[in-house]
Write a structure and sequence with these properties.
- This protein has 304 residues and is mainly alpha-helical.
- A two-stranded antiparallel sheet has the order 1-2.
- α3 packs across α11, α6 packs across α9 and α8 runs antiparallel to α9.
- The two termini are 26 Å apart.
Amino acid sequence: MNIRRERSKSKKYYIVETMVLILVISSVLSVTYGNNAFVSYFVPNSIVPTNLGVGMNRLYSANLSRTGDPLYDEAVLQVLPPGGFQSNISLGDSIIRLVQDGVINPKKFESLYQNAVPQELRNVLTQPSDQPIRLTRQNANVYLNLLWPLGLSNYMQANDMSPLNGSRLYNFSSTAGWTLGNASNGGFYFNKFRIVSLTLHQEAMVTMIAQNTYRPCCNNPTFFQDCNHGSALLGLLELGASQGLTENELYREALTFNSFWFPQVYVLLAVHFGAANHLGWSEVDPRLVMSHDFSSLAGFYSVI
């Protein structure tokens, strides 16, 4: 299935799209060369404070110390509040069922964290969790790895049309990268188990949102779950829809989880909206931020 490429023609989005692209490229460069100068040269000083304590060239981490720049410091507090985000979604028995079906191997999962799992998640593999998720800076990565196998393995009829569902199934990061199950490749579990039951209406809503939300590590929508973040966000949407969340609530949840998984990108986007539109982070429409124009890289093609 061809993935629709929506190209923004509005010049006011170009700076943000270019900025996100630069962050991704420089993230790769930092891994290879450890060079922090790339972003500090290209990203305008009006958007990024110059005295950040860590390199700006990371997608998955953000400087959380006060910088003295009021816009940036306020953006950090709004996007990544120290007390975390109180979600309306709970894991329920989904993780237990993933363990029962072999999608999560408890020994492999626990070995990954070497007893460093946050206290509130110590029993997540063995007990139902009806308490709504409180997402924090400390546990966001654990939830990423819990939701990833859920989005990958949970059955939806719409996944029959997923770009994953073809000859390359076992070669994507989301499938080949999932090695914490009993099988050696997560592709074995794709769309296989009815972990989260959805009505036709709920599945249609999840599919629609998944086709219209993006992540800043690639050009693909959530529905094209070719990486762990795509699978995890799809799993989150499935859980939320099954628990009665509305479309608006699901977009807000999606933006917040993406923000904790890609903190640097969304902190900078919050700075942008504050500086350019005088909007607080909670005032920005999650649909807009999660759209192709802001949460993917494809806007770059409009610039060049």
